[in-house]
Amino acid sequence: MGTNYYLIRIIQAFVIAVAIAAATSPLSIRLAHKLGVIDRPKDARRVHKKPIPRFGGMAIFLGSMAAMTIPAGMNDKIKYAMIGGALMYLLGIADDIKDLKPAVKFAGQFLIASLVYALGIRITFISDYFRGGFAVSNANLILSGAVAYLITVFWIVGITNAVNLMDGLDGLAAGSVAIMSLYLAYIAYIHGARLGSMPVCIALVAVAGGCLGFLPFNFSPAKTFMGDGGALYLGYMIAVFSVVSPLKRATVVGALIPMLTLAVPIFDTMMAMLRRTLRHESIMAADKGHLHHHLMAAGFGQRRSVLIMYGIVAIMGEVAVLISRELYKDAVPLFMVALLYLCIIMVPRTPKKGIKRIITQDTSQLEKEYFAEYLNLERERRKELREAAKAAAEEAASAEEKDVTET
């Protein structure tokens, strides 16, 4: 099959996913009101001020699944991934409606990941840099069954929840997953002829299309949220397709490609776990310490915060593309830029002494500090305006007095 054949299917998948997701998003809003699946601002962690329907994941699910069934459903592993995706979506829907306990939700995720592993979707090797060096592309460590199972399951469950944690601002998760999916799809496309990864490319484009069709209804000010159904489904799909894909055989460091593409949600999740551990809290405890909360606390607002996050996600996607093409020297500067931006976001303008205090800081306190700083600056600005007005008045009076004297 030629490149044109797959290119047509890629376009078909994208158009189908966008069209169905956009068409079913209003339906999901009406259905959410009928079922009572409404996200109410009941705590300080939420940034929205009014009740919002949270059943929008249905649109993403229907759009991407339709696109994968029609143009991309040619690969058994794609079909197995779709089965797991449907189960993960149903688990998220149950959580949206019944508000499942975290232990129940995690157990469901582990069972779904285990099922997917049993169906043959698994990580069976990792690149061996120390033995093979950077010149041998097949220098890999073959994993035992138990180790492969643990790594595969923890990868799927970890990325699934990392994306779920990103769903904190209007449009953040949907747009970020669209960007990550498109970068992974592009990597699969450029290596497709050699590695047979075109079906994965089409499936990833379908996921991106579902997100983009839903995004106009989810971007600030949001008309609907994707809910746990959409967030868990998206996290699962992007995690599984990075495992299904033979991308990790593209280069000796190809095992890093999915990790680099998903670096932002991974970084945010690791920081959240570290932050809660240092506070002696449960790692499942909700807080306002995520990257998007720091941007909001700094006064950027929802739209600008989300766009900043999009930019960092895109930079890491470009790093993954460069790594996949073995352009390591070109990738390092971009990676350092992204890391610098992440550090700037995490460290406040007036940092506390000690790394632990910086990591465990509460953005609610940062908001107060930034607001106090804003008030001080505003007082100084108004004082300068009063002094300038007073000086101008005195100058005008002096000039008028001079004119009278001369007359």
What can you see in these coordinates?
By secondary structure, the protein is mainly alpha-helical. It has two domains: 3-359, no CATH class; 367-407. Helix content is 73%, strand content 2%. Helix 1 runs parallel beside helix 9, helix 3 packs antiparallel against helix 10 (227-244) and helix 7 (172-190) packs parallel to helix 14 (301-324). The longest helix has 44 residues, at 363-406. The model is unreliable at 127-140 and 248-254 (pLDDT under 50).
Please supply descriptive tags for the structure shown above.
407 residues, mainly alpha, 2 domains, two-stranded antiparallel ribbon, 4 strands, elongated
Blueprint (SSEs and pairs):
Layout: H1 3-35, E1 38-39, E2 52-53, H2 57-72, H3 76-98, H4 102-118, E3 125-127, H5 129-132, E4 140-142, H6 145-166, H7 172-190, H8 192-195, H9 198-218, H10 227-244, H11 256-261, H12 263-278, H13 291-297, H14 301-324, H15 328-346, H16 355-359, H17 363-406
Antiparallel strand pairs: 1-2, 3-4
Helix pairs in contact: 1-2, 1-9, 2-3, 2-9, 2-10, 3-4, 3-10, 4-6, 6-10, 6-12, 7-9, 7-10, 7-14, 9-10, 13-14, 13-17, 14-15
